[in-house]
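Postdoc handover notes: sequence design on the structure in folder B. Input tokens:
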């Protein structure tokens, strides 16, 4: 079945439907990863976005039960050059076509993704509509122009957990990880530190990595008050990744301000942007963002370059932070944007990339160990 992708700048791309019939709006972006499509689709940070994969063949290793970052897909739409009709992998439990149908995802193939990606690079990420039911280009373009977009929109409320819970890597229920006891493992340190995770759209592997470094993990909704977090007696607080514009969640920024200097803090992706705003700085929208598993990030202190996974469309303007003594720790070698920062007085640090992802394959896992050491030192004083 024919499908159209209409952009707010009057551009239209054509393809064939591979998912359900319907229509969705969102910001159209591209991801340069060759693999990891299941993690991408289930990453809550992609809420509100229509994702274009630059790698031409997607779906050949199928779908499994392990490679998910949340309970269900969060993308508004999925665009590829070609979907593999055959899923061949010993871990596969199904194929993409069935997966899209089950989770009601609009997916389009046979699209000139090279041309679409080059267009986004030149013109920037923008509002778009993907449809299999309205095939009138003028109508879809008008819908794209009138769609809400992501600037100033609170997408976090659509992906955060509804109530607090203790995480266990066992099962999922209504988008939350249940409180089942986890079997002992020689690979895990015994939980000795309590870490509260502010859930702005947290990825499962962040929770798993905190568990591996010996944290008892409590996850709380994005709107949780600082006093309620302190009542849990945390050794540290992790501010998670999440979707959209950081300025769309002012209520969280105000609570994060109350945490500064009172408890060790680790921010990831959106978490870094929220810390930047809590420090009194500004954030800005990147032209087309960083989305892929091959981003080169330089750690300034050591000079070491890490290959990391990223998914963000906003960045911190470090020059705008005047109120707090904050230094840059990492930069992106493609465009020199800020990829990490650290407070020079309080035990607070953050990164814009995703240290829980493994394209390196383990390049950035050390950051979770650093967070643990920071928590231990703070509470040993």
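Designed sequence:
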């Amino acid at each position: 079945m024919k499908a159209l992708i209409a952009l707010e700048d009057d551009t239209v791309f054509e393809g064939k439907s591979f998912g359900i019939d319907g229509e969705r709006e969102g910001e159209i972006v591209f991801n340069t990863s060759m693999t990891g499509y299941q993690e991408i689709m289930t990453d809550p940070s992609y809420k509100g976005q229509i994702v274009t994969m630059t790698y031409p063949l997607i779906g050949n290793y199928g779908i499994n039960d392990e490679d998910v970052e949340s309970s269900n897909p969060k993308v508004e739409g999925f665009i590829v050059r070609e979907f593999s009709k055959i899923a061949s992998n010993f871990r596969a439990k199904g194929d993409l076509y069935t997966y899209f149908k089950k989770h009601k995802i609009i997916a389009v193939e046979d699209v000139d993704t090279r041309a679409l990606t080059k267009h986004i690079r030149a013109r920037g990420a923008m509002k778009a509509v993907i449809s299999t039911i309205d095939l009138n280009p003028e109508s879809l373009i008008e819908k794209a122009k009138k769609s809400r977009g992501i600037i100033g929109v609170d997408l976090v409320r659509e992906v955060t957990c509804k109530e607090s819970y203790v995480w266990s890597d066992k099962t999922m229920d209504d988008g939350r990880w249940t409180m089942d006891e986890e079997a002992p493992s020689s690979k895990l340190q015994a939980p000795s530190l309590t870490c509260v995770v502010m859930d702005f759209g947290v990825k499962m592997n962040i929770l798993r990595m905190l568990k591996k470094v010996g944290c008892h993990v409590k996850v709380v909704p994005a709107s949780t008050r600082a006093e309620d977090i302190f009542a849990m007696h945390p050794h540290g607080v992790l501010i998670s990744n999440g979707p959209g514009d950081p300025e769309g969640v002012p209520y969280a920024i105000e609570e994060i301000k109350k945490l500064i200097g009172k408890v060790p803090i680790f921010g990831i992706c959106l978490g870094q942007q929220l810390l930047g705003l809590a420090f009194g700085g500004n954030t800005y929208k990147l032209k087309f963002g960083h989305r892929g598993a091959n981003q080169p990030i330089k750690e300034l202190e050591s000079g070491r370059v890490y290959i990391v996974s990223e998914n963000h469309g906003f960045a911190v303007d470090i020059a705008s932070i005047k109120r707090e003594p904050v230094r840059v720790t990492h930069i992106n070698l493609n465009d020199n944007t800020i990829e990490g920062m650290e407070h020079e007085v309080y035990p607070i640090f953050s990164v814009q990339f995703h240290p829980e992802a493994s394209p390196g394959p383990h390049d950035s896992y050390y950051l979770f160990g650093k967070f643990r050491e920071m928590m231990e030192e703070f509470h040993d004083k």
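Context for whoever picks this up: The chain is about 20% helix and 30% strand. Don't rerun without checking with the PI first.
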